[in-house]
Amino acid sequence: MKLLQAAAGGLLLLLGWVGGANAQAPAYPSKPIKIVVPYGAGGGIDVISRQVGERLSQRLGQPVLIENRPGGGTLIGAEQVAKSAPDGYTLMVTTDATITINPHLYAKLPYDPVKDFVPITQLVFLNQLLLQNPAVPANNLKELIAYAKANPGKLNYGSYGSGSQPHLAMEILKRQAGLYIVHVPYRGLTQTVPATIAGDVQLTFSGAASSQAFIKSGRLKALAVGGKTRLALLPDVPTFAESGFPDVPANAWFGLFAPAATPRDIVTKLHAEVVRILRDPEFVQKELTAKGYELIASTPEEFTAFLAADSARNARAVKISGAKAE
Known about the structure:
Blueprint: H1 2-24, E1 33-37, H2 44-60, E2 64-68, H3 75-82, E3 90-95, H4 96-105, E4 117-127, E5 129-132, H5 141-150, E6 156-159, H6 165-177, E7 182-185, H7 189-198, E8 203-206, H8 208-216, E9 221-225, E10 251-259, H9 264-278, H10 281-288, E11 293-295, H11 300-321
């Protein structure tokens, strides 16, 4: 009897300790959250990350810090997040380059885009414009194609590098329209748009946020835009689909990820809070519509299914383009 009483007392003590430990476990989040952006400061993805992070900090009651880790075609920042503790305190906002393009460019990656990350939500689509220097005698995509066919090799286009979204989009257009236009790779958007304005290249791709002022001032012409519908900012610019080329992948997406094995309740909480931010009417009008972004705010399951389809699409685009990691 004494043994049973002792055992029962020990069990109650143990259960009390466990219950006390659970009761003392801090609710998430109990410390600052870091969002790694594998791109430099000042670009569109950096700006949106900071805007979402600021509002997320207000909702969660903890600082949300943005850490820019550019370099290596987003490999450096992505590897850092892939190897971080899956506790909800290190997240990543990145683009299709990291998850659905790089696997088809590199023979080996320092991370697995499927196994090393948990998709939380696809934030937005950035539907890109095909931009042209005004010196080229074309006012729409049909006229550009006719001019390019009559002057093979005379036109150049600038991209962010081999395998970048502009490179893949133009190579698909060239293949489908039967064009010979020369690829000139640059290091980023900050170089391609000025190069097109200066006439160093005649064509490039860019989002509306980075180019609408140049379009409205007449320093660039916008011939077509990716996506299913025209941009509210530039309603006179037809989509590629309207222009007869629905398969041209003239868009990019931004998405939020956590390291694999992040607890489901944390993923659910982050998803709910971020989607509330994204769907706020003021945020949509001021930060998305006014800058040419298309709101997505998908569920983790929807985002996961989208990633599989997007990876297959980009595999075909990379193969057609002949792109290789530089």
